[in-house]
Amino acid sequence: MHLVDSHAHLDMYSSEELEGVLSRAQAAGVGTILAIGIGEGPTEMHQALAIAEATRPAKLPTIFASAGIHPQEAASATSEALARLAELAAKPGCIAVGEIGLDYYHVENPEPKVQKQAFMTQMEIAAQARKPILIHCRTSDLATPAAKQKFGPADAWEDLLELIAEHWAPHGIGGVMHCFSGTEEQARRSLELGFYISLAGNLTYPAAAAIREAAKSAPIDWILVETDAPFLAPIPHRGQRNEPALMAHTAAFLAELRGMSTEELAAQTTANFQRLFPSTGGPAPRN
Questions:
Q1: 262-to-63, 243, 247, 258 alpha-carbon distances in Å
Q2: 64-93: average pLDDT
Q3: pTM above 0.90, yes or no
Q4: I need a labelling partner for 132 at 20 to 30 A (CA). Which of 59, 119, 176, 221 fits?
């Protein structure tokens, strides 16, 4: 069985921890990991690619990388930072730009105007590099009263989908809705725009009924699985520090939800990942 963890923050583990994390991932059937290059800000977005380039042992998962400026760091999307992102995005080992998008959840996050500008500029960089984008979207629906007051009626999903439709979809490159936490309707609209739906450990949480409905209705050849490690550990490890090995629980949960074996799900989601990212061993992407 070969599973692909389509979203893990490997640079959040110490160098001492990482070897064990990767060994356990391999033992759990995780053969490929996409390491997310956002760090704690633009000055660290190269770290995932450095890990991917340094990790080549045959007994460990194959690692690819992304690079991007998270919406929480949108105010740091200076011309220098964006130029550095363009350099990273052009490298073969960097297969995606992200995670990028909109986040109206934390009161300390930049204003929507600032987030939107950083998002649009990064979409331009990704289009120039012909690399898919990895989307982060978090609304203020469940945020603190202070955040709700700050962002008001602004809807991150609506803003996001409008920007993608105008500035990204015409390029025909596609991308991933990372840690999908939207509704069945938002999943449908995402799919229409050429985005894969990536499901994380929160799929297994009791309150995630809407996510499960989206996971059941989305076409199986447009679904990916991820950990978002070290965050969002699946049940039965909820509350613990997550790592790629634990995505086996999410994959098994999703397989049961879809009425298929874990092996079938692993094969399908691996094929999906390779279709979106042909340089990882798959066919040419869909138009």
A1: 22, 19, 11, 10
A2: 98
A3: yes
A4: 59
